[in-house]
Design a protein that fits this description.
25% strand, globular, 13 strands, alpha/beta, Peroxisomal Thiolase, Chain A, domain 1, five-stranded mixed beta sheet, four-stranded mixed beta sheet, 326 residues, binds coenzyme A, 10 helices
Length: 326
C-alpha cells in the first residue's frame, strides 16, 4: 500500500505588499528585486491573522477537494516555524478550529522544507495502515519574524498556507514513491531566528538587538541550496530508477528564481516543467511547496500517472526531494 495525495488546497492572505511598497521602507528597487529574486509582490497576514488561520483555509479547501469530512481526519501534521504560540502546536490549534477530535496533531520544524518533512512523516503512517487518512499542512507567517528594515531579508518573504490530504491506494501506478530528507546542522548559523527561543528568551535586549527576526547569509544559502537540491533530486529519482528526463512536472520550494533556474539547469529539466509562482507570493517558507502543488493541480497540470518531482530547502539547513506518481 502507498499513500496518495487525494486533495490539495491553498490560501494566501488578502493584503499585498509590492516591491514599490518596499522601496518606501528600505534602500532597494523593483528592478533589483526582480532581477535577483524574481519576486514582484507578496501576501502578508492581517493584524488579526495567525498561522493557524491560514492553515484552516487551506485545509478546508484540500478536505473539500478530497471529499473528506474534517471530523474524520485521523492525523494532522503541520510544517511551520511561525506557530501561533511557542506551544501548543499549530496542529492542535488547527484540529480545534476544524471541529475535529479524532486526529492526533503536531508540528514539524524544518523551515522551508517543513511541508516535505511533514509529508514524509504522514506518508509512513498512511502507507503502513496506521491511519486511514492524514492532513498535511505547510503554513507560515514569516513576515511576523521579518525585520522590515533589513533589505537582505525583507524583500524575500511572504505568508500563506498549503494543504494536502493523504489517503491509501493499492494502485501500483500511483502514490508517493520515494522521499529523501537531509539535514546539515553545521549550517545553522547561515539562516536562523537567533532570539526568542530558550537560548536567548524574549527580552528588552533581544528586541533592541532585533535578534527575534530572521538572520540570513544569502550568498551561502544560495550556494548550499543549488548543490543540495540537485543532489537530493538525483538521489530520489535514482531510488525509483528514474532520470531527470522522466519527470513530468517539478513542484519546487519558491525561494528564489535564480536558485530554481540553476537547479533545473544542472538537472537538465526545462523550466517549462516547473510551476512558478514566487512572482506573486515570494518565499512563503513551509507553505511554498503545497501552495505551488495546489496551483498546478487546480490549473489541470497534474494528470494520473504523471511523475512529479518535489523539492525544498530551508534553515537547518534541512532539505529533501520526493517522487510522486500523481
Ligand atoms: C538574498 C539574495 C537575493 C541576494 O542576492 P545576491 O546576488 O547574493 O546579492 P549580494 O548579497 O551579493 O549583494 C549584492 C549587492 O546588492 C546589495 N543589496 C542587497 N540587498 C539589496 C536589496 N534588497 N536592494 C538593493 N540592493 C541590495 C548588497 O548590499 C550588495 O551591494 P555591494 O555589492 O555594494 O556590497 C540571494 O543571495 C539569495 O536569494 N539567497 C538565497 C536566499 C534564500 O533563498 N533564502 C531562503 C532559503 S529557504
Amino acid at each position: 500500500m502507498r499513500s496518495l495525495i487525494a486533495g490539495t488546497g491553498s490560501y494566501a492572505p488578502e493584503k499585498i505588499v509590492t516591491n514599490a511598497d518596499l522601496e518606501k521602507l528600505v534602500d532597494t528597487n523593483d528592478q533589483w528585486i526582480v532581477e535577483r529574486t524574481g519576486i514582484r509582490e507578496r501576501h502578508v497576514v492581517a493584524d488579526d491573522q495567525a498561522t493557524s488561520d491560514l492553515a484552516l483555509e487551506a485545509s478546508r479547501r484540500a478536505l473539500d477537494a478530497a471529499g473528506l469530512d474534517a471530523k474524520d481526519v485521523e492525523m494532522i501534521v503541520v510544517g511551520t516555524v511561525t506557530p501561533d504560540y511557542p506551544f501548543p502546536s499549530v496542529g492542535a490549534v488547527l484540529q480545534g478550529k476544524l471541529g475535529n477530535r479524532k486526529a492526533f496533531a503536531f508540528d514539524v520544524s524544518a523551515a522551508c522544507a517543513g511541508s516535505l518533512y511533514a509529508l514524509s512523516v504522514a506518508d509512513r503512517f498512511v502507507a503502513t495502515g496506521a491511519v486511514k487518512n492524514a492532513l498535511v499542512v505547510g503554513a507560515d507567517a514569516l513576515t511576523r519574524i521579518t525585520d522590515w528594515t533589513d533589505r537582505n531579508t525583507c524583500i524575500l518573504f511572504g505568508d500563506g498556507a498549503g494543504a494536502m490530504v493523504l489517503k491509501p491506494t493499492d494502485d501500483p501506478q500511483r502514490g508517493i514513491r520515494a522521499v529523501r530528507l537531509h539535514t546539515d546542522g553545521s549550517l545553522v548559523p547561515i539562516l536562523l531566528q537567533p532570539g526568542g527561543g530558550s537560548r536567548d528568551p524574549i527580552s528588552e535586549k533581544v528586541v533592541r538587538e532585533k535578534s527575534h527576526y530572521v538572520k540570513m547569509n544569502g550568498r551561502e544559502v544560495f550556494k548550499v541550496a543549488v548543490r543540495s537540491l540537485e543532489e537530493s533530486c538525483r538521489e530520489v529519482l535514482a531510488d525509483e530508477k528514474l532520470t531527470p528526463g522522466d519527470v513530468t512536472w517539478v513542484i519546487a520550494h519558491q525561494a528564489n528564481k535564480r536558485i530554481l533556474d540553476a537547479t533545473l539547469h544542472r538537472l537538465e529539466i526545462p523550466e517549462s516543467k516547473c510551476w512558478m509562482n514566487l512572482e506573486k507570493y515570494g518565499n512563503t517558507s513551509a507553505a511554498s511547496v503545497p501552495m505551488t502543488l495546489d496551483e498546478a493541480n487546480r490549473a489541470g497540470w497534474l494528470k494520473p500517472g504523471d511523475t512529479v518531482l518535489m523539492m525544498a530547502i530551508g534553515g537547518g539547513m534541512a532539505w529533501g526531494a520526493s517522487v510522486v506518481r500523481w
